[in-house]
Write a structure and sequence with these properties.
The protein has about 160 residues and is mainly alpha-helical. The chain contains nine helices and no strands.
Length: about 160
């Protein structure tokens, strides 16, 4: 990492602690654009922080999907059930981008309980994961991967 990149990262991390939520919102986007281990860890912390501004959390969920780090799967699954619309939509979208089948049961649950854009985004993400939520439940068991069968039975 160059000296400039290191300075920009330190500045963005500093802005995450600012009392001004607009600065924190911008800092989250900067971290998502920079990437790297420290950015991923910071974004995961933000997504898990129930007291953080809802838009900051939503943007952190979005950036975690962009960064593609599988450490974000569990925090994003948790964010599916958080208060606030943006965090839930962005978490569902990011889970589809990450492509990890651990997200399937939670996304199926969202499809079965939500009625808005969160649901539509969860359906889209399930399809990205190779799971069709509209498929009949009595599909040939041998053709249905184990993660999908678990999602159908648990949700």
């Amino acid at each position: 990492m160059s000296q400039f990149d290191d300075l920009a990262l330190k500045q963005a991390l500093s802005e995450l602690r600012d009392v001004n939520k607009e600065k924190r919102r911008t800092a989250v986007m900067k971290l998502g654009m920079m990437g790297g281990d420290e950015a991923v860890r910071s974004l995961i912390t933000i997504v898990r922080n129930q007291n953080e501004d809802l838009i900051v959390r939503g943007r952190a969920a979005l950036m975690l999907g962009k960064l593609g780090d599988d450490r974000a799967v569990d925090p994003l699954i948790e964010a599916l059930h958080s208060r606030g619309y943006q965090a839930r939509v962005n978490a569902a979208q990011s889970l589809g981008k990450l492509g990890d089948p651990r997200a399937i049961p939670s996304l199926v649950k969202i499809v079965r309980t939500e009625t808005d854009t969160v649901r539509d985004t969860a359906i889209q993400s399930l399809r990205q994961l190779g799971f069709d939520p509209d498929a009949p439940p009595d599909a040939d068991a041998d053709a249905v991967p184990e993660a999908f069968r678990k999602a159908l039975s648990d949700a």
